[in-house]
Amino acid sequence: MPVYEYTALDLKGKTVSGIIDADSSSTARQKLRTSKIFPVSIKEAHKTSAQKESQPSFSALQAFTRVKPAEVSMMTRQLATLVGAGFPLVSAVDTLIPQTKSHGFKKSLAHIKDSIVEGNSFAGSLSLYPGIFSPLYINMVSAGESSGTLEIVLDRLADITEKQEALKSRITSALAYPVLMCFIGMLVLFFLLTFIVPRISSIFIDMGQALPAPTQFLISVSDFLKSYWWAIFILIIGMIFAIRSMGKTKKGRYFMDKMNLLLPGIGTLSKKLAVARFTRTLGSLLENGVSMLSALDIVKNIVGNVLLSDAIAESAKEVGKGQGLGISLSERDIFPSLSIQMILVGEKTGELENMLNKIADVYEREVESTVMSMTSLLEPVMILVMGVAVGFIVLSICLPIFEMNQLIR
Q: Domain 179-409 adopts which CATH fold?
């Protein structure tokens, strides 16, 4: 059934917009009038923003219109509640469409509902939108449909996405203040060096007095920033573009991920986050009846690091030959030893799924604790650096003044 976008007026004369599914535009207009909404314009939605995201091309518009993981998580939780309460799947999805805030997500859900009505499976309908629903999401839904436990699977999917979003939110919140302070500090230093220092230093230069070495260095830095500030911005933009371009190639991504793991502090955090994501996802897939090999094939694509992904792919080959997961991962020499030992214990006791979830809990707590500790140390370090920089500027300006006072005496 086609989906139409409309702009209309309600009984109060307020402009409203949204989407509606109908056999034709005239039927859509009639449905809107029945709902006391009077259409001004109506057109068929041929392609959603989610479908555009699945294409390799990228535009700034897609960056702002993409569906956020938090929206998917909320929809999943609401859908699990409705299905668990006995709603048919089509009715449950139809109920959620008006409650969805994102216009693109509304259209996607409407197309998914129509696909289900046409006889396709829920997982197959979701797979039409890879830009919104991950392979993990689609495979878990497929497993839930096959086993008749869709509401349980949706609940677990909501738990997974909510935990990931909560961890991401806590880390972002912890880093927000230091990043803001760093940005403001750089702006203050740039303003001092390009506007204040040149005006003061011109007085010393006009006097023809020999300047101390710190003052000469400060004036040189100020002149460089004042004359070539545009080159610095171009260099920064060029570096960002080069990093993005490098990340799109296989060798470039491999090099960046390898360097990321080697960075002091950051490398350890990245590895722990990747392992937590790997174990959380693998545990959930195994709990929902997905086979080990299929689950490993899925999780290798969501760890976010090429080296770890390759290690999982190689381990999957060994598992396919009958070797245990813990032993095969230990041979790669990239996963933390604690995670390997816990996986081995889980395999021996027959509680692998629970052990994988415990590993994820351990590493998520460690990452959060480490980030909090780092940010608590970062703030005084930034204040100290700013103080030293401003103190050097003040000292460099005051030294010639002190020398002039001595000459006057």
A: Receptor-associated Protein (1.20.81)
